[in-house]
Amino acid sequence: MSVSATSGRRFARRVWARRWSRLRTLGVLALLLALLGATAWVVLASPLLAVRSVEVSGAARLTPAQVLAAADVAPATPLARVDTEAVADRVRALIEVRTVSVSRQWPRSVRIVVVERVPAAVQRRGSSYLVLDGTGVAFDTVRTRPKGLPMVSARSGAGARTVRAAMDVLAAVPARVRRQLVEVRAASPEQVTLRLTRGRTVVWGSPDRGERKAVVLTALMPRKARVYDVSAPDAPTTSRG
Fold first, then answer.
1. Residues 188 and 234 occupy one common structural domain
2. What is the domain range of residue 25?
3. What's the CA gap between 3 and 173, in Å, rounded?
4. How confident is the prediction for the chain on average, in pLDDT?
5. β pairing state of 109-116 and 53-57
6. Hey, is 240 helix, strand or coil?
7. Torsion angle of alpha carbons 63, 99, 162, 152, nearest 10°?
8. Predicted TM-score (pTM) of this structure
9. Could you tell me if 54 and 112 lie in one domain?
10. Does residue 24 sit in the same domain as residue 87?
11. Given Cys at both, which of 21, 71, 158, 200 links 162, Cβ 3.0 to 4.6 Å?
């Protein structure tokens, strides 16, 4: 009988140990779930980590207020729920903005860094001038031509590719020639010419092999000529007529 009683007590202890182990495991899981739930609430729903400020940097032509209006970040939005890509898309819709980056600054701020388009040339439009960046995008209109910006002219009805070709050529023009540049003319993406001071013309052709054309043109410039043709840079020509 004593052996049977001892075995019963041992069996009962093993059963209780197994039950206690399961209860402890369940308790730990419940605690972890509670902690995860509390953390999720703090991050995703509570005002503790909500947006209190939006910082804007890089704006010059634009005002910070214009960037903030475009960003449209609602105050008190939980920071983790701010869609930074959507904010960047809205700011990028501002024509003056070339690139933008948006990041969360924990615990309660959003940072917006904009890179604005830089004036590279102007294009005549009636009595006004369109200001173009280096990719040919028009992002401003002014009444008076800004000093120091070359003129770009494209054939009537020419598309964006033609303007972009003119800007690519402009970027490749050597500094020595650029100082004498009056106008970049583009009849098509393959027919770009430069009008220089003293009635001289450079036939550039397409933007292809721009570096090579720049080197050849620099070598030709000491010659007295009216036309410098580097459209085929391996066989350049000059003429006085």
1. yes
2. 1-44
3. 105
4. 88
5. parallel
6. coil
7. 40
8. 0.74
9. yes
10. no
11. 158
